[in-house]
Amino acid sequence: MDLTYPAEAESFRPKIRAWLEENLPDGWFEPGFHQSETERKEFNRTWPEKLFAGGWICAGWPVEYGGKGLSLLEQVVLNEEFASAGAPMRADFFVTPWWVHDPPVGHRGAEEGVHPGILQGKIAWCQAFPNPTRAVTSRV
Q1: pTM of the predicted model, to two decimals?
Q2: 129 pLDDT exceeds 90?
Q3: Among residues 115, 117, 126, which one has the least CA distance to residue 137?
Q4: Cα–Cα distances in Å, from 2 out to 5, 6, 83?
Q5: How many CA atoms lie within 13 A of 58 on its CB side?
Q6: What is the phi-psi region of residue 131: left when phi exceeds 0, alpha when psi lies from -120 to 50, beta otherwise?
Q7: 9-15-21 Cα angle (round to 5)
Q8: CA 67 to CA 65: how far, in whole Å?
């Protein structure tokens, strides 16, 4: 079994790493890096904005829905680079756009679009499926 990535996926890796190095706080990659409670709160407040500006929130979504249209392997590389850097990602980055309509696309058409607050990191959301015939979407 060949576990190497194709060249186009690997060529994406340094772009992600460069973005992380540019956007994470100074000293992030140094051993013993520490943030005060105030610094951590500020980082948590501004990080979603940086991710949105970089196009990393929902980067696997098609471009027409506000994503980058990353391939599955590019999304894997993105996850690997963020994990390697210890950089936080929101839990809802890698869902499909058809899951996050309100109500879900199954009830309305995709042409109504995705709520912009999700892509901007301003809305935390979850979707539960209490039974096979009904989906429930919630914004937090």
Answers
A1: 0.70
A2: no
A3: 126
A4: 9, 10, 23
A5: 26
A6: beta
A7: 135
A8: 6
